[in-house]
Write a structure and sequence with these properties.
Layout: H1 6-26, H2 36-58, H3 72-95, H4 102-120, H5 125-147, H6 151-175
Helix pairs in contact: 1-2, 1-6, 2-6, 3-4, 4-5, 4-6, 5-6
């Protein structure tokens, strides 16, 4: 059995899973029904890295940073506040009647959490993912206003494509391409 970097396999699966979720969020109010098939296709494609990453992680005999448990506390210190910040921001946006910005806010928070994770997981590619996901909400909001589409559509498409692309890149890395 080949030794696989467990953390890399799990990251591949997570990218696929959350790409699936972002494409789903983009379907909240797409600009036209004909776009739904493309979003559905994106979701379907995202299942590839998800399933492959899970299979490789389950087949893994190696111990990555998180798998070894040594950095699990640090990981939770990164991810816990991310969820709290995302939730608090979403609540504040709801209270001030600006909930249409929730997807952009979540994307920004998710992007920011990749910076400490890149170091923790020793995966420099996560810095690039973090930069893209932090920049995208600003571009998505501006583009949504210019093209008269929902912010959730614009944010979801960009975040979904970004995570799908990097999920495939990581899957290819696991394959050895």
């Amino acid at each position: 059995m080949e030794i696989v970097d467990f953390d890399l396999a799990v990251t591949t699966a997570v990218f696929g899973l959350f790409s699936f979720a972002w494409f789903g969020w983009a379907q909240e109010r797409p600009p036209a029904d004909r776009v739904r098939w493309a979003l559905g296709a994106g979701s379907l494609l995202a299942l590839g890295p998800t399933v492959y990453g899970v299979m490789r992680a389950l087949d893994s005999r190696s111990e990555g940073a998180i798998a070894a448990g040594d950095d699990l506390g640090t990981y939770l210190i990164v991810v816990g506040p991310e969820f709290a910040l995302a939730l608090v921001g979403a609540i504040v946006l709801r209270v001030v009647d600006r909930s249409e910005y929730t997807s952009a806010w979540i994307c920004l928070v998710v992007g920011a959490h990749f910076f400490p994770l890149a170091s923790l997981l020793n995966q420099p590619i996560l810095y690039l993912v973090g930069v893209l996901l932090c920049a995208w909400p600003f571009l998505a909001v501006r583009g949504a206003h210019r093209r008269d589409v929902s912010i959730s559509f614009a944010t979801g498409v960009g975040a979904g494509v970004c995570l799908l692309f990097f999920g495939v890149v990581l899957a290819l890395t696991l394959i050895g391409v």
